[in-house]
Amino acid sequence: MRESDFISGFARGLKVIEAFGEARPKLTIAEAGKLTNLDRATVRRCLLTLADLGYADYDGKFFALTPKVLRLGHAYLSATPLPLIIQPYLDQLSEKSGQSASASVLDGVEVVYIARASQKRVMSINLSPGSRLPAYCASMGRVLLAAMPETEARGVLDRSELKANTPLTKTDPDVLMEELRRVRSEGYAIIDQELELGLCSIAVPVENDRGRVVAAINIGAPAAHVPAAGMVARYLILLKETQSALRLVLR
Fold first, then answer.
1. Is the pTM of this model over 0.85?
2. Phi then psi for 35, rounded to 5 degrees?
3. Are 180 and 145 in contact (CB under 8 A)?
4. What's the rounded Cα separation, in Å, for the pair 49 and 57?
5. Distances in Å between the alpha carbon of 169 and those of 195, 197, 204?
6. CB of 63 within 8 A of CB of 52?
7. Dist CA 79 CA 96 (whole Å)
8. CB under 8 Å to 22, separation ≥6 — which residues?
9. CATH fold of 80-249, please?
10. What letter would DSSP give residue 135?
11. Per-domain residue ranges for the chain?
12. How far is CA 23 from the centre of its chain?
């Protein structure tokens, strides 16, 4: 892209929007500036513009995003058929497994949920389409990273904040790269309480009819009911069946 085609003000506005999150539903100008590394005057203009356009509320101190922001994400979900195609297959997978099933795509260093069929809540956070998780410690993230050339996958890890969410979380880049090689070889990824204690999950890639990986699907289960060692025997065949069925309908 030519430098003259880049709209820096638009980019800064998007950066300010991305500063908000589940743990940061309200932000002051100073807090938003710290999170975005933008100067106070720029952040102030961006936030006031968002408020003027109806994308944010302002009470004189704190800014908070409004439901209007959902239009931005809905545009993607409406424009791509992937979530609509995958959803009924996830519903069947969840029904057969008796567990929650999800689908996601990779966005930078995170996976973004595009569809979900929930039997029960197995995580402390509420996952739904649009939810994000770090790719390095999520089963779907590892599947998607394993589908990339090694240099690109290593680049994602280098840009990630590799923190230990639990005592079991793998954070060493070399260990993670070796894990990605195993995932690539075996065709599935298992997470044993690396994202959250008490949660195990197993994921496989989703390919289109040309063999290109376009998403990942997984099954998550409480570790107390199905430990990581039992995930393959219990759920891999169901995931593989869904994987094969989706390959026939995705273009």
1. no
2. -75, -30
3. yes
4. 11
5. 7, 10, 20
6. no
7. 29
8. 125
9. Beta-Lactamase (3.30.450)
10. G
11. 3-69, 80-249
12. 16
